[in-house]
Amino acid sequence: MLDLAGAITLLVVSFAAATWQLIWVRQSSENDAPATGLRAGKAFKTFRSFAFALPFPLLIAGVIWTELVRDTGEVDVTGRTHISPKVVQNGDTLTVTLEGQPNRHRLRLTLRAADAPGDWSGSQFCVPETQLGVALLGGNGKAQAERVDSGEHVDLRLGGSTKVRAQITVHTDLGCHMEVSVLKAVLHD
Asked: Superkingdom of the source (predicted)?
């Protein structure tokens, strides 16, 4: 993996090499015999210099940018999350667990609450009235967001946790049975 100091050094060296290439081509072309036709123009010599000198620094800059994005970009971890239990009522809690160690400092969690399938006595359409309270278990951050609606995301500060677990509390009407799932989970800085 490339650190920032190494990346900057590599970029400076590549631009120095490109500049040297431009100077060397100009000096060597001044000593050449006079050319005729298309190659005689100063514009062609400048274009040739840039055509040979610029691809390498641009390649290096692209590699550096890719490394920085890989180290600090967002990571979709939706497939690494587990939630239990799935069907809950008002006041019940459930736990969302993220497999593996997080390699970022924050977790953006989007939960979905839907009416549970099945023949529940007195069931009705409960989604509009349902809200979810989210609290991070463990860690040292105060990452809580009370009363998040279904489909809204909550940003949890992990605070150096090595195992990520969040407690979800369901707030809905009495008699409602809700099925809660993780819609999206993204680690980011």
From this structure: Bacteria
128-168 confidence digits (pLDDT tens) = 889 999 998 876 555 566 789 999 999 988 877 778 899 99
Say if residues 20 and 70 touch (Cβ distance below 8 Å).
no
Return the C-alpha torsion angle 142, 146, 150, 156, nearest 10.
-10
In sequence order, what are the residues at sequence separation of 6 or more whose Cβ sits closer than 8 angstroms to the Cβ of residue 114? Answer: 127, 150, 178, 179, 181
In a 10 Å sphere around its CB, with 0-12 CB exposed, 13-18 middle and 19+ buried, how is residue 183 labelled? middle
Neighbour-count burial of 25, counting CB atoms closer than 10 A to its CB (0-12 exposed, 13-18 middle, 19+ buried): middle
**Mean predicted lDDT score pLDDT of the chain:** 78
In the numeric block, which tokens belong to residue 98?
């993220």
Q: How many Cα atoms sit within 13 Å of 142 on the Cβ side? A: 0
Is 0.70 topped by the overall pTM? no
